[in-house]
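User: Last request for today: this protein with zinc ion, please.
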Amino acid sequence: MADPSEIPDGSPGTLPADGDPIVGLIPLIRRVIAARVRDAQTVDDLVQETLARVMAARDRVENNSLAPYAVVTARNLVTSTGQVHQRARQNAHLLVDETPHPPPDERLLRREETSLVGAALARLAPAEREVLLAHEVEGRSTADLAASRGSSPGAIAAQLKRTRAKLRAEYLLAHQGGDLPTDRCRPVLYALSSGDRRRQRELDTAGHLLECDTCLDLSVALFDRRPLPETPGEATVRVSVDSDVVTARHQGRAIAAMAGFNATELTMIATAISEIARNIVKFAQRGEIEVRIVDEADRIGVTVVARDAGPGIRNLSQAMQDGFSTYRGLGLGLGGARRLMDQFEIASEVGVGTTVTMAKWRSQSAGLENKGAGR
Ligand SMILES: [Zn+2]
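Assistant: Here's the final one, the structure of the complex with zinc ion:
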């Protein structure tokens, strides 16, 4: 079925109806990334991440330099993230709590991986390393380890969990090579890897990820892949930590895909959800995002409702200004999310909370024809 408003593949310079040159770049970004990364979920993540960065940089980049800027950004992200993610999965036997069979690998790759894991193990405290290896390699049970150390099985299990989280972060660092740019990076990565919410808040991991490209790249690989929504057509995601941002955008994207949006529109929707979710983590600490398909007589689309009980926004018109962001100039902010969607409403009361309601409709000109046509 031809969709008249769909941006033709192979013409990155073509502007879509709303005329935003960055949105016109999405097919180009997708092609650059899809040519280098096989995993579809990783492609989606990287396209969204690239889009967010290009939008955040629009003040610094001339319109006619946006395409090359997007290509370079996409390539850099693929290099730093895509491979790391692939390798991390091949090491799943050491890096996750379950123990699946390691896939058959070439000898050379194995040797390289062994040295990376070795480097990561070397970063652990001796006691942590000893317990982890006794459990993983010698197969000693937590009860056995607890008895020999005057501890409890529960405490040993908790220690193992923390150690694995550290190892996962150190493994990614060893793979990437190079130094971390700040002293905060390592604690932030440990906190993200372990999923420790209290620690993440203490360290302001969300704020750090928006300032530190190194940690942002690594965090994409650290976050687990979340399952698809249970009820087709709707999902509610609780948002309080950085990994919830990833969950919200994955689920939002999955639902929008069910509504029949094209790849470019899916990226726009997922990026808008991502920005709104980041706002919740940063300013409200806790909230939820609800995404659902809306199927009306004359149109089909998705609505996104984000609610939080945070401090509220004092100056809404300032908060909505393009480029305005309390993330010190990084991130798209609310104005960016509004540009990506067809409808955007915000209600905020100081001391009570904020509700953002957004909607995107499938290409309006095609909506009526497509409806019920069995896409
Ligand atoms: Zn960092």
